[in-house]
Amino acid sequence: MSQIRLLILGVLRYRQPLHGYDIRRELETWGADQWANIAFGSIYSALNKMAEEGLIEAVPEEEPQGKAIAKTTYRLTPQGQGTFEQLLRQYWWEQKPMIDPFQVAVAFMDCLPPDELLAALRYRADLLRASLSVTDRITQGKLSNPHTGRHVAENVRLMASHQASELQWIEEVIPKIERGELP
């Protein structure tokens, strides 16, 4: 929950007041679903919880015109600003392990027949290459948009570095399997 808290509080810190939908859209433009443990549907329950805790406050809009439904906008409270700063510093200064289901599968690579293992690794390598290609285009697009903070593009570059590292590992392990050195 603290990841989604930090993301929501941070978005509100940049731009407020915002509707939950606008927070979601902003996080989508950041590609947060690719590098943070976030399900976009959980934003609304997180907003309600943080409002109950006094981290944000709900600001109802004036009466809607016509058939429009009144939407609630949210803004950061001083307590929310303090929580944002605390979480931000925690994430910068603490080393936490990355939980990667692929690494769990690697621990049991010896349970698959070599031909299936090779097929799975080649398939994963192809996915990573495609993802890296898309990530490169996304980064260029973000850098060319004057409204996108440079830090957003750097976050995408960090994600690409993780993918490139995994791809390099796969490309090194495939020949080992082919030679019978693994698993």
What attributes characterize this protein structure?
Arc Repressor Mutant, subunit A; elongated; three-stranded antiparallel sheet; 7% strand; 183 residues; 2 domains; mainly alpha; 66% helix
Structure, explained:
- The chain has 183 residues and is mainly alpha-helical.
- The protein has 2 domains: 2-93, Arc Repressor Mutant, subunit A (Orthogonal Bundle); 101-178.
- 66% of the residues lie in helices and 7% in strands.
- It is built from 8 helices and 3 strands.
- It has helices spanning 2-14, 20-30, 32-35, 43-52, 78-93, 101-106, 114-144, 150-178; strands spanning 18-19, 56-60, 72-76.
- A 3-stranded antiparallel β-sheet has the order 1-3-2.
- The model has no long low-confidence stretch (mean pLDDT 90).
> Counting H and I runs of at least 4 residues, what is the number of helices?
8
As laid out across the biggest beta sheet, the strand order is 1-3-2
How many strands in all?
3
The sequence of SSEs as H and E is HEHHHEEHHHH
| Residue runs with pLDDT of under 50 for 5 or more positions | none
Instruction: Characterize the overall form.
Output: elongated
Q: Main beta sheet: strand number and arrangement? A: 3 strands, antiparallel
* CATH homologous superfamily (4th level) name of the largest domain: Winged helix-like DNA-binding domain superfamily/Winged helix DNA-binding domain
Name the CATH class of the largest domain.
Mainly Alpha
Proportion of residues in helical segments? 55-70%
* CATH-level-2 architecture of the largest domain: Orthogonal Bundle
Class based on secondary structure composition and strand pairing: mainly alpha
Rg measurement, Å: 21 Å
Beta content comes to: 5-15%
CATH topology of the largest domain: Arc Repressor Mutant, subunit A
User: Cα distance, first to last residue?
Assistant: 37 Å
Task: Write down the domain tally.
Answer: 2
